[in-house]
Amino acid sequence: MTRRDPDIDALIERAAQGDALARQELLVRHRPRLKQMIAVHLDRRVAARLDASDVVQEVLAEAIQKMAEFFRERPLPFYPWLRQLAWHRLVKLHRRHIHAQRRSTTREIPLKGMLTDESSNALAERLLAKSGSASKRLVQAEMRARLRSALALLPQSDREILVMRWLEHLSTREMAAVLGISDGAVKVRHLRALRRLRSRLGNDICEDAT
């Protein structure tokens, strides 16, 4: 569903006309992507209290309540809108469970550039160049560690775009909607992030990443 899906488009139009079954199907179809997004960003201290599936249920329940308003206004494409609901839910959960002892605004919750250890490992795996040679396999663990360190030093905006592309599997169009920028600007930001990684790591980043 990271590319335009005619079936999804048809479901959206039926849902916009008030078809309750189409609305339910839309949520079912997007549930795996939503769960992946939440798992990527859910801090382990929150995950110790709440499973990603529980958060998904809360987001979907909110989406059902707000869907009529969404179809009246269409502020975003459908999945970026769902993701926005999930993002706001995550911010509230992190504030409640992690930042309860200090004043904080939504902007101060460090979610955008935050990577859990598991997500950092997964992103490193995705970005490492594929190789079948024994010698290459021997240095994979070292490269993984170097890549995790390099990711931690990247600007927040670079980490954000890489997470969206490689862990959330958002399309260029979806990233543009989430970030409020053009498709071309998304591509520029993605290339810039990869070049900054390559400047630290040489050519060990997957060439298919672009």
Please state roughly what percent of the residues sit in beta strands, choosing from under 5%, 5-15%, 15-25%, 25-35%, 35-45% or over 45%.
under 5%
CATH architecture of the largest domain: Orthogonal Bundle
Largest sheet: none
Question: What is the CA-atom radius of gyration, in angstroms?
Answer: 19 Å
> How far apart lie the N and C ends?
19 Å
CATH topology of the largest domain: Rna Polymerase Sigma Factor, Chain: A
Write down the secondary-structure element order.
HHHHHHHHHHH
State the domain count: 2
Instruction: Tell me the number of strands.
Output: 0
Coarse shape: globular
Backbone structural class: mainly alpha
In round numbers, the mean pLDDT is: 82
Helix content: over 70%
Low-confidence stretches: 101-110
- Quick one: CATH superfamily of the largest domain? RNA polymerase sigma factor, region 2, helix turn helix motif
Count helical runs: 11
Indicate the topology:
Elements: H1 6-16, H2 20-41, H3 44-47, H4 52-73, H5 78-97, H6 117-127, H7 134-138, H8 140-153, H9 156-166, H10 172-179, H11 183-201
What do these coordinates show?
It is a single chain. With 210 residues, this protein is an all-alpha fold. The protein folds into two domains: 6-108, RNA polymerase sigma factor, region 2, helix turn helix motif (Rna Polymerase Sigma Factor, Chain: A, Orthogonal Bundle); 117-209, Arc Repressor Mutant, subunit A. 70% of the residues lie in helices and 0% in strands. The protein has eleven helices and no strands. The chain has helices spanning 6-16, 20-41, 44-47, 52-73, 78-97, 117-127, 134-138, 140-153, 156-166, 172-179, 183-201. The two termini are 19 Å apart. The model is unreliable at 101-110 (pLDDT under 50).
